Amino acid sequence: MEAEKFDSPFKGRSLLTWADYSPEEILQFLDYAILAKKQAHNKEIHQRFLGKTIALIFEKRSTRTRSSFETAFGEEGGHPVFMSTQDIQLGGKESVKDTARVLGRMFSAIEFRGFKQEHVQQLAEFSGIPVINGLTDEFHPTQALADILTLQENFGKLKGLKWVFCGDGRNNVARSLMIISAKLGIDFAIFAPKELFPPKDIQDLCAPFAKESGAKIEISDDISVVKGADCLYTDVWVSMGEEALKEERTRLLKPYQVNKELMAATGKENTIFMHCLPAVLGQEVTEEVFESSASKVWDEAENRKHTIKAIMLALI
């Protein structure tokens, strides 16, 4: 398919959270990702970002996000410029607003991976170019789309599926999965201790989306919530910036570890396991499950690249 086919209706928009997009629009991004992956596996070479540049701002370290953005943009003929906190004065000597206005005059787009959601919002508001949220403390939309692609590949459908996030229900991945599931009509549950339930504002945000799509959203500390799950999903117990809480988190989350017993508790033989990576084996997941045939983590990791390329093609 030629570049013109990516003349999407999203050009010039930003992706800060999937709450800003309709179910039909999210599925269009998914279709772009399926196409991008097919083209990659066919060894097709396109130059759809030729003459374009993207600023990659990273306050937090990354393997998959940085690799995906740099390789996807570069392979398409574009020029990615990596900027760490050592390279720019974001929010320090120079305000986020001023940084946005400068970068907006020099780049075709901006990716931001950092702490504050308000920073990525300010970049989008003042830069005048598409801004992509590569991760904040609140949301991780590019991860969510890769996970949706992985679900689609494994089950051939999305509606009617159920997946369960096990662990820290407040974290950015859990929030993003809740939003995208509520939008697309996928049943989604969080299996977590009461202390780590997602905040009320995110629940209230998702409620009308779920009502419209028919998705069932559950939040519980009872193991029965995993029954019927097509996928169990987890993330690290201690997120970046919360290292001091390791002992407390380990105590709270040990009963929510994804292990052979929890996989069996779904009552399904074909339940898959997913993890956004990096994983700490023996904590949130056992090595037995992580290395099993049910584990789709490497497909999921590869899908970060194809979905990120699709997002950039759609927006830029």
Order of helices and strands: HEHEHEHEHEHEHEEHHEHH
The number of helical elements comes to: 11
DSSP, total strands:
9
Report the β-strand fraction as a percent range.
5-15%
Q: Tell me the Rg in angstroms.
A: 19 Å
Q: Low-confidence stretches at least 5 residues in length (pLDDT < 50)?
A: none
Give, in spatial order, the strands making up the sheet with the most strands. 7-6-5-8-9
Termini Cα gap: 17 Å
What is the fold-level CATH name, i.e. the topology of the largest domain? Rossmann fold
Shape annotation:
globular
Largest sheet: 5 strands, parallel
CATH architecture of the largest domain: 3-Layer(aba) Sandwich
Can you tell me the number of structural domains? 2
Per CATH, the class of the largest domain reads Alpha Beta
Average pLDDT for all residues: 95
- Helical/strand content category: alpha/beta
* Superfamily (CATH H level) name of the largest domain: Aspartate/ornithine carbamoyltransferase
In helices, the fraction of residues equals 40-55%
Write the layout of secondary structure elements.
Layout: H1 23-41, E1 53-58, H2 64-75, E2 79-84, H3 96-104, E3 109-113, H4 117-127, E4 131-135, H5 141-155, E5 162-166, H6 172-184, E6 187-191, H7 200-213, E7 217-220, E8 231-234, H8 246-253, H9 260-264, E9 272-275, H10 287-290, H11 297-315
Parallel strand pairs: 1-2, 1-3, 3-4, 5-6, 5-8, 6-7, 8-9
